[in-house]
Specification:
By secondary structure, the chain is α+β, with helices and mostly antiparallel strands. Helix content is 25%, strand content 26%. The longest helix has 21 residues, at 2-22.
């Protein structure tokens, strides 16, 4: 993982300054390469102002159902578009179903959480007493993503990135 990050930083640090200087002179067929370069930035695809226009265009094109742009000379693969409208906070996992009709989802803690002791007086499989404390898996409401569609992009020498749009 460290080696992968080091290679990504090297690629970005050697190519990004050139891109930032020459962005205004880029040909229209360079758009796909601009997108790959910006996505490979460990600081995020829009960390630099010069990356905002190509990434905004990418999001618009993908949202319109167009394919991911190409870049000759760079080894990369993209997944089919995916859809994940909900997400959970750290320490929780997504449960339930969701889809085009707007069904909702919930988040369940990945480990038991301390809850009110009066609940533990009931005999129920979801409750555990650990060290005299009442513990259970807690359910919360899932969060709705602003950009629920995604494409996974795997770039040779950099790794896999998820692009949300």
């Amino acid at each position: 993982m460290r080696d992968l990050l080091a290679r990504a930083l090297f690629v970005v640090s050697t190519m990004l300054p050139y891109y930032l200087i020459s962005a205004s002179y880029a040909r229209s067929d360079d758009w796909g390469c601009q997108v790959i370069l910006c996505i490979s930035n460990p600081g995020g695809p829009t960390q630099y102002a010069a990356c905002e226009p190509p990434i905004q265009r990418l999001w618009s094109e993908l949202a319109a159902g167009h394919s991911f742009p190409t870049c000759s000379g760079v080894g990369f693969q993209t997944s089919e578009p995916g859809y994940e409208p909900y997400y959970c906070d750290a320490g929780y996992r997504l449960v339930g179903s969701f889809g085009a009709r707007g069904e909702t989802a919930s988040c369940v803690s990945t480990s038991p959480q301390k809850v009110d002791g009066s609940i533990c007086t009931y005999s129920h499989d979801n409750f555990t007493s650990i060290g005299g404390e009442c513990m259970r898996y807690v359910t919360t409401q899932a969060h709705l993503r602003a950009q629920p569609h995604y494409v996974d992009v795997t770039i040779e020498g950099v790794g896999k990135q998820r692009v949300w749009y």
